Sequence to fold (262 residues):
Amino acid sequence: MMPSATRESGVFAPCALIPIYNHKDTIARTVDGLRAHGLPVVIVDDGSNDATRAVLDAIAHEQSQVQLLRLPHNQGKGRALSAGMLAARELGYTHALQIDADGQHDINDVPRFLAEAATHPHAMVCGRPIYDDSVPRGRLYGRYITHFFVWIETLSMEIHDSMCGFRLYPLAPTCAELARKPFPARMDFDTEAAVRMVWRGVPVRNLPTRVIYPENGLSHFRMWGDNVRISAMHTRLLIGMLPRAPRLLWRRLRRRKVACAG
Fold:
């Protein structure tokens, strides 16, 4: 069990948050990389198999700054992240750096995300992926469709990429939004969470970061099922944007005036 963080007014107390489902071969390297940057780690096991559970037990036993949470059965990435955010907040952390367990994200960029959040503690820091040739073309083109809808749903281009799972959340407004209405349970989590945080008035900082698709990597994205969920999500968000449009437009105008005055 990891000791609780000390959350005081003005104190920046971040942790890393990793949802995992059966990525036993990459999780230790990911945790070691995060710990090398001084980050305590919260892992949420989303009903993994016995082999992965054994690896996670060993990591939690060997590293005092690793907190392991277990969901009773597989519930989806969004559910795991929601549980992890609430737990991190309860432990006293002010921010949670979401990162995948499969080695896609560049851990060398962790200090940049932390520095950006320390400078802008009220902001959500979103990764903007820089891909190499390993990215599947279909996944890449599909992102542009989501980008287009997100720009409409927020009436802005504040979020450069709403699907990147390398993101740093300020936990106070995130958990407040989660208490207002649960986030989606599965792969539609990242985009809906980002849009709803913008609706809530949380500023966005975008950082470019290298993202790879490891050879023979294990992906839990289900082409048909998750695309149906994403389509339903955009329908919900487009409808939800309509009553919020005046406020979003006013906020955009006010920020533009501030920028011009500066």
Notes: The chain has a mean pLDDT of 90.
